[in-house]
Design goal:
Blueprint (H helix, E strand, L loop, with lengths): L2 H14 L17 H11 L4 H15 L5 H15 L3 H14 L4 H13 L3 H14 L4 H13 L3 H14 L4 H15 L4
Helix pairs in contact: 1-7, 2-3, 4-5, 4-6, 5-6, 6-7, 6-8, 7-8, 8-9, 9-10
Pfam family, one: TPR_16
Keywords: TPR repeat
Length: 191
């Protein structure tokens, strides 16, 4: 497949997300655990960066538990490959994970991250769509979609995704800066 057709397919997939954040025919979003709901409330209501960082770390740990040692190992291997800059190897592990555990949102999120590193924005957006279908409160997936829309010069969609992530994660300075940068382009006037 040529780079041009891969880029075209990536852009088409990413643009198809402008319709919404749901996957046709996907099962309804699974409700969060009592613990993750508590941590989301702590994160959104944190008084400062220290409290927000603590709640976020705990939440990420909670979301990283698949309930299967084998799936947790695939997630670890995929993340480890990303850490040592081997995104192709990460994609292999994480694709196996999502094939065997399609209802595990964190597997899809890590796969999206690997695709994004490889500049495969269409597959990354597709994986992020799965994350949000399974966990609509996944601020990392919302921020990832914002980054893709931002890269594709779709300021209104980028602003919307970043703003949704900021509702969950209000202490993130990068999100705040991205929203402020896009305010004029997304709304059409100076604030």
């Amino acid at each position: 497949m040529s780079m041009t057709s891969l880029t075209f397919k990536s852009i088409v997939t990413a643009l198809s997300l402008t319709v919404g954040f749901s996957i046709p025919g996907a099962s309804p979003a699974q409700p969060g655990t009592e613990r993750s709901d508590e941590l989301l409330k702590r994160l959104a209501g944190a008084e400062d960066h220290v409290a927000a960082d603590k709640a976020e770390r705990e939440l990420r740990l909670e979301w990283s538990r698949s309930g299967s040692a084998a799936m947790d190992l695939l997630l670890k291997r995929g993340r480890d490959a990303l850490e040592v800059n081997q995104p192709e190897k990460a994609i292999e592990h994480l694709t196996a994970l999502t094939d065997h555990a399609p209802g595990f949102a964190e597997g899809w999120f890590s796969l999206a991250t690997a695709y994004y590193v490889e500049e495969m924005y269409g597959p990354a957006a597709y994986a992020l769509e799965h994350v949000l279908a399974l966990n609509p409160d996944h601020f990392g997936a919302l921020q990832g979609l914002g980054a893709i829309y931002d890269h594709l010069e779709m300021p209104k969609k980028a602003h919307e995704a970043y703003a949704r992530a900021a509702e969950i994660r209000p202490h993130d300075e990068d999100l705040t800066a991205a929203i402020e940068r896009l305010d004029r382009e997304a709304t059409g006037f100076d604030l």
